[in-house]
From TrEMBL:
PANTHER family assigned: AP COMPLEX SUBUNIT MU
Subcellular location(s) per record: Endomembrane system
Signal peptide: 1-28
Keywords, sorted A to Z: Membrane, Protein transport, Signal, Transport
Name used for this protein in its record: MHD domain-containing protein
Pfam families per UniProt: Adap_comp_sub
Similarity comment: family membership: Belongs to the adaptor complexes medium subunit family.
Natural source organism: Centaurea solstitialis (yellow star-thistle)
CDD domains linked to this entry: AP-4_Mu4_Cterm, AP4_Mu_N
């Protein structure tokens, strides 16, 4: 339990700002943190410039008050306390509050929170009582939270919001698991019977200057969100050749796609408390009764060598005493029927760089370049328009893209330019693709009648967690 814990939610989306400062008259906090702490937090985070860091750490102290914050889809969830509590405990609580909010509102953004201001107060009042955590279970909260959510039109969401995670080129996988409340019914009072299983992987790869893989790791989770009435039993079958904690000296490098069969070797994994593992060792089947809300069925980690989705090649050549040329090339190593979006390539350049001119390949469409002079970084791929809508470089599997950048220096370089530039980093999202090859072979739902046949959706997505290439 959290002793002397007071909570408020501080959220902002793009250039908009919304403050939720829990009044001291409520049962959520103990009143030990002065009013105005929301403003103190905002100014500290907005203008943070300590220890050479551009962004505030998730935990910091101001005038004896500890501030904890977690960023979820552009919103900041913040907790304050004067007590010496476990940071991991508080941050986990904030993430669970964000998850419960998303379960109830369907869409987690500023507009949905504004319209459901009273519901937010009621949720927080039930989650925390006088500074003590009571429950973060959506299913338990349904019995004591009575305000109905006011739904927000999903079409108004920005294109890079959570509903766009599973976009595949011009096509789109069903996104209602992200944009529908678990407590609200469909128009007409009927409930659409469907269940979503999402395999989400965050990959970390470090390449040497010669292109060899130095480190590689996958942090994955199998997320489930159920809209099934009556909570029927579900069986989830994974790869039969799934090994945990034993690699047997085998490599996973030589495969051609995300849907191919073969051995999957995980370092370790853990399961949700509702999962029964009676037959897991026999046929890799998970049995569970899903509760309301989104929850992780299984978390896993893999450090076994895998095929990285992108290859990065860099060449830096001096072109005189005050000039240099950089050639960046990225190649997509995944199948042609897969498209990566929200691709951004960044490269720090020498601190004495005064100007950069870019030359893109012929026929390049939708590619944007920029020189961030404040932090001396070259950026390729992402564009922020005045309208706050985002467009990004989309990369089709098997394709190559090249960028030439001509650097102009304000002073003559007296050392090796390659030691003063880089490393190159990439961020991207690849829908319907996963590097580990972990698959849901089938999703079986216990039938209540012969005509009962709910919709089943299994989706995959890969994010870059830390994708770095040294120069």
């Amino acid at each position: 339990m959290i002793s002397q814990f007071s909570l408020f939610a501080r959220t902002f989306l793009w250039s908009f700002l919304l403050i939720f400062d829990i009044p001291h008259s409520t049962d959520v906090d103990r009143g030990d943190v002065q009013k105005g702490s929301a403003e103190i937090f905002f100014r500290k985070v907005k203008f943070w410039n300590e220890d050479g860091e551009a962004e505030a750490p998730p935990v910091f102290n101001v005038d004896g008050v500890n501030y904890f914050h977690a960023k979820v889809v552009g919103l900041l969830f913040v907790a304050t306390t004067r007590a010496n509590v476990s940071p991991s405990l508080v941050l986990e609580l904030l993430l669970r509050i964000a998850r419960v909010t998303k379960d109830y509102l369907g869409i987690l953004n500023e507009d949905s929170i504004r319209k459901n201001f009273v519901l937010m107060y009621e949720l927080l009042d039930e989650v925390i009582d006088f500074g003590y955590v009571q429950t973060t279970s959506t299913e338990v909260l349904k019995s004591c939270v009575f305000n109905e959510p006011i739904m927000v039109d999903a079409a108004r969401m920005p294109p890079l919001g959570p509903a766009a995670l599973f976009m595949q080129g011009s096509k789109r996988m069903p996104g209602t698991a992200v944009t529908k409340s678990v407590v609200a019914n469909e128009p007409g009072g009927r409930k659409r019977e469907e269940i979503f299983v999402d395999i989400i992987e965050k990959i970390s790869v470090t390449f040497s200057s010669s292109g060899y893989i130095l480190t590689s790791e996958i942090d994955g989770t199998i997320q489930m969100k159920s809209y099934l009435s009556g909570n029927p039993e579900i069986k989830l079958a994974l790869n039969e050749e799934l090994n945990i904690g034993s690699s047997s000296g085998r490599s996973l490098y030589d495969y051609s796609g995300s849907t191919g069969s073969g051995a999957v070797i995980l370092d370790d994994c853990n399961f949700h408390e509702s999962v029964r593992l009676d037959s897991f060792d026999v046929d890799r089947t998970l049995t569970l009764v899903p509760h309301d809300g989104e929850f992780p069925v299984m978390n896993y980690r893999m450090t076994q060598e895998f095929k990285p989705p992108f290859r990065i090649n860099t060449l830096i050549e001096e072109a005189g005493s005050l000039k240099a040329e950089v050639i960046l090339k990225i190649r997509a190593e995944f199948p042609q029927n897969i498209t990566a979006n929200t691709v951004v390539v960044q490269m720090p350049v020498p601190s004495y760089t005064s100007r950069i001119s870019f030359e893109m390949e012929s026929g390049a469409v939708g590619q944007v370049t920029d020189f961030k002079e404040s932090n001396k970084k070259l950026e390729w791929g992402l564009k922020k328009a005045i309208s706050l809508l985002l467009t990004s470089l989309q990369v089709v599997g098997g394709s190559e893209h090249t960028l030439r950048a001509k650097l102009t220096f304000s002073q003559e370089s007296h050392g090796n330019i390659t030691k003063e530039a880089g490393p190159i980093s990439m961020t991207f999202t690849i829908p319907m693709y996963n590097c580990s090859r972990l698959q849901v072979k089938y999703l079986q739902i216990a039938k209540k009648s012969k005509t009962y046949n709910p919709y089943r959706w299994v989706r995959y997505v890969t994010h870059a967690n830390s994708y770095v290439a040294r120069i």
